[in-house]
Amino acid sequence: MSIATAPCEWPIIGCGTEDDYGQAVDLGLDCRALDSLSEAARAVIEEAATSHLWNWTGRRFGLCELTLRPCRADCLKGESSYLGASGLRRGLLPTQGAPWAPALFGGAWYNIACGRCGETCSCDRVEQVALPGPVDSVVEVLVDGAALDPTAYRIDNRRLLVRVDGGDWPACNDLGKDPTEPGTWQVSYLRGAPVPSAGQLAAGLLACEMAKALCGDSSCKLPQRVQNISREGVTTVIIDSFEGLEKGQTGIWFVDSWVMSMNNAPRRPKVYSPDLVRPRATTWRATP
Fold first, then answer.
1. Residue pair 116/150 in contact by the 8 Å Cβ criterion
2. What's the pLDDT tens digit per position in 13-62?
3. Before 94, cis peptide (omega within 30)?
4. Judging by beta carbons within 10 Å of its beta carbon (0-12, 13-18, 19+), is residue 285 exposed, middle or buried?
5. Distance from C-alpha of 106 to C-alpha of 280, rounded to nearest angstrom
6. pTM as predicted
7. Looking at residues 95-110, what average pLDDT do you find?
8. Are 64 and 12 in contact (CB under 8 A)?
9. Separation between Cα atoms, residue 265 and residue 123, nearest integer Å
10. 74 — phi, psi (to 5°)?
11. 3 state SS of 171
């Protein structure tokens, strides 16, 4: 698995940006330095700007498309799984051949055997699937090679794929077949959090100033890291230690203020209890 060093997607509002009607967005930026670069060089500058902002804000913005082929643990004969049965509601089905699974009912823990709890649990019906979140939206669900109607499912709590048309998710998934064949199913969705408009504008401003720095433009707002001090005929070169740069302090007011607002947002204290059932909230649903 490769290590991510840049966001999957970070839209930029800045030089050359157009609105929904194809009209140029005029932000009053000096785009001469950025426009003078080749298309490849400009792409590198914009990637550098978005990568900096992505790292400075904790790598939590940007959407990545993820495609998964869910498979229940007992279908894998002991291999681990992230698919939860509808009756258990939380946790995984027994793995590595374990005949019992712990479940919390009414504040008490019970060991239950798959398919032996009557109406309170089921290993034959799968109404929801726990996906690695946060889930922003679903792109497509294939069942037996055919795309399922988006109105047939929804996302709860930014991670649970819930069937709402009265059907169930397939109990097993033949991973040896192509996802377009019968007996298979897969989910494609966007994972992560969308980049706020202010973050898109911050990326445009930062890319513009980076281009100026590379072109030697004296109007560049990025702080000079090398300073010459002359005293009594002696010239001393001082190199800045980049203090504060790891926190996103670039010297550009808009960029710095946005990064700080994302990193220093107040958080309310929370109390967690295993006896409390987490409330449900629908976080995504297709528009009919």
1. no
2. 988 887 666 677 777 788 888 889 999 999 999 999 999 999 999 999 99
3. no
4. middle
5. 17
6. 0.74
7. 59
8. no
9. 43
10. -70, -15
11. coil
